[in-house]
Amino acid sequence: MFKKITTTTVVAIATAGSLIAIAANYPITPNEAADLHNLGAGVNTHESEYTPYITPDEKFLFFQSNRDPAAGPEGDFDLWYSMNKNAEKGVDPLFEVSGNVGLPVNSENLDGHPSLRRLPSGEFEMYFCSFASPTRPGPALTNIYHTVWKAGKWSVPEAVTAVNSEFHDRMPSISQDGRYLFFSSDRLGGKGGDDIWFVERDEKTGKWGPAFNAGSVNTAASEVTPSIHSDGTTLYFSSDRSGGVGGYDIYFTQSVSKLANPDAEHIAEKGWAKPLNLGKPFNSEFDDEYPTVIASGERVYFTSNRSEGLGAFDIYRARVPLFARPTIRLSLRGKTLIAGTNRAVNAQISLASGEISQQTNTSDEKGNSFNFQLINQKEYRLQASAAGFRRIDEVIDTRKVYEKPEIDKDLLFVRDIKVPKVVNLRITFENAQGKVISPKAKQKLLPKATKFIKFTAGKKQPLIRLDDFEGSEEKALSALEGFVLEVEAEKKGFEPLKEKRSISVMLDQYKDSVPETLEVRFVMAPKGNKVEKPAPVAAEKTDEAEPQEAKAQRQKTRLGGGTFTFLGRIYFASGVHDAAVGDAKTAARRAAAEFKKAGRGRIFVYGHGDSQGDTAANKQLSKKRAAFVKKLLVAAGVPAKSITTQGAGESQRIHKNDDTEQKRQKNRRAEIYISVPREKSE
């Protein structure tokens, strides 16, 4: 990508730094875990390779070197680069032979300390350090310059005048959002020989503001080579402060404001966390400087003059120790389900840690899914609530999450009802007239039993005992929810019966406690009785009986001179209001299209149920079915204020005698109508 230049020679540069090792106050990482490597020939030479910068994607490595051939007429440290051939292969880096960045970036003086940022356009800008010269204006000492890669070449460098002073200003590090520029300087107002400073760019004017000392990052010793990570929170640097391994050591710190809230207004508003030494083998008795860490936080690149190098300074890479990794963005995602089942439940969820606070809700329209964006290295408190279920309150600890960006976690809700010491099951059979009959029957209770076993109708059989779950109602309820009852029955003069019943669906009707005996009733159809199949999708207008509520509204509309039209029917699974049989969304979209076409009027949704279960519970269930369809209509573009919902319970069954599952399916429905009044001008 970047053009290679070939020209003339160089002069070495010395780096100051104490070589005295003070009493150990640092961690030691095993060599195997550190995975420390000299980048070797192609990048390193017998000269000095210094101030490495690795792009966040680990594709390009920029550094300074006094090797031949230099770009300037007299030579000195020049900027060089190398491309990682394995950047997109997911394997260890492999750098090609380095190339000189060339003119006009390199000059007859020192050019080094590079830091790059990819612009929104996809091109790069680079900040680097150089001495002023007749062709490169600036104060007499080291200054920071800026250049942009456009159309296959670097622009003529320009001095960053808002930063440069009469002192040494060098080692720039640009944040990847372009908002902050960190650098090292020995200007007045610091704490030691060299301090780390930063400036902030005004988002409106694009100009750099005044320089601020990085405060608690600095000491009476020297702090150099700042490197702000692409997370915008973590700062790596080097210092020769006491207590290190020796010479200049690599440290890291993090913005307290950004740790509390990644979207905090200012990076240094609350200062910096206590800097930590990376320890051995990253640091040595020599100078270890200029760390830059790739976006994933996995690897660090730095320079060192340790004895085993090829030249005066060499570039190394290593695996970042876990405690020193930058923050990573995480995704906490999952579904809200009834414990022990795959049945979804609508819920409200909050997630909080420090200044971070997020709320969401799950619904049928969202697939009952949630997705929170958060950062690692924090403890979060998660709270979730759903009507009729016990509150969930737990801690999500991400302090040791360093690599996996997605955390999958379903929230499992337990009903807020009591469980007796023993829960029994009693299965009975009836004919169409409600008379009890005794067929030959067998059952299978999944997952408790995988084979059918014979049983006697009307006889109680134990389902669970609370003692089997150490007295835990939560565990007992989860077990109950997961049971699915399959029954097969035969009797002379009746159609064979094969049905499934979810115990979880049966529990929906109980608000305070589970009864000691769950009653399950099956109706067997007379021999030769026609079996009706439920419509798999919302039906078009049919000749089925119109509900009484719809008849009343139709009459009212007609008296006003308007029209009242049936738009569709949506069927539901047994015992639930949010699990339609077929494509409910398509039916809602069709109804919404008719409403938009009419340009006025009102939508009426009537919910209904079958004869199974408690009458009052069926009434509530039918209301919820109508409300569910209303949500679909609103999502399809019908204003909520233009929709009226009603629940008729089991009173308006299409099949009064719903003695088969097929008939009951027809009764579990919601119907959609549109009332369009006559306009005054008509």
Write a brief caption for the model.
The protein is mainly β and 682 residues long.
**What structural category do the secondary elements indicate?**
mainly beta
What would the average pLDDT be, to the nearest integer? 87
Helix content: 10-25%
Quick one: overall form? elongated
What does the largest sheet look like? 5 strands, antiparallel
Please provide the count of β strands: 42
Proportion of strand residues: 25-35%
What's the oligomerization state?
A: single chain
Tally the helices.
8
Radius of gyration: 37 Å
- Determine the N-to-C terminus distance: 72 Å
Unreliable segments (pLDDT under 50, ≥5 consecutive)? Answer: 3-23, 530-543
Write up what this structure looks like:
Strands 6, 7, 8, 9 and 10 form a 5-stranded antiparallel beta sheet that branches. This protein has a 5-stranded mixed beta sheet with strand order 39-38-42-40-41. A 4-stranded antiparallel beta sheet has the order 1-21-20-19, with no helix packed on it. The protein starts with 30 loop residues before the first helix and ends in a 6-residue tail after the last strand. The protein contains 8 helices and 42 strands. Residues 3-23 and 530-543 have low confidence and may be disordered. 11% of the residues lie in helices and 34% in strands.
Topology:
Blueprint: H1 31-34, E1 37-38, E2 49-54, E3 60-65, E4 78-83, E5 99-100, E6 111-118, E7 124-131, E8 142-150, E9 153-154, E10 158-159, E11 169-174, E12 180-185, E13 195-200, E14 212-213, E15 223-228, E16 234-239, E17 249-254, H2 256-260, E18 276-277, E19 288-293, E20 299-304, E21 314-319, E22 329-338, E23 347-353, E24 356-362, E25 369-375, E26 379-385, E27 392-397, E28 406-408, E29 411-413, E30 422-430, E31 436-437, E32 440-446, E33 453-454, E34 461-465, H3 473-481, E35 484-490, E36 497-502, H4 503-507, E37 517-523, H5 548-559, E38 563-572, E39 580-581, H6 584-598, E40 602-607, H7 615-635, E41 643-647, H8 661-667, E42 669-676
Parallel strand pairs: 22-28, 22-29, 30-37, 40-41
Antiparallel strand pairs: 1-21, 2-3, 3-4, 4-5, 6-7, 7-8, 8-9, 8-10, 11-12, 12-13, 13-14, 15-16, 16-17, 17-18, 19-20, 20-21, 22-25, 23-24, 23-26, 26-27, 30-31, 30-34, 32-33, 32-35, 35-36, 38-39, 38-42, 40-42
Helix pairs in contact: 6-7
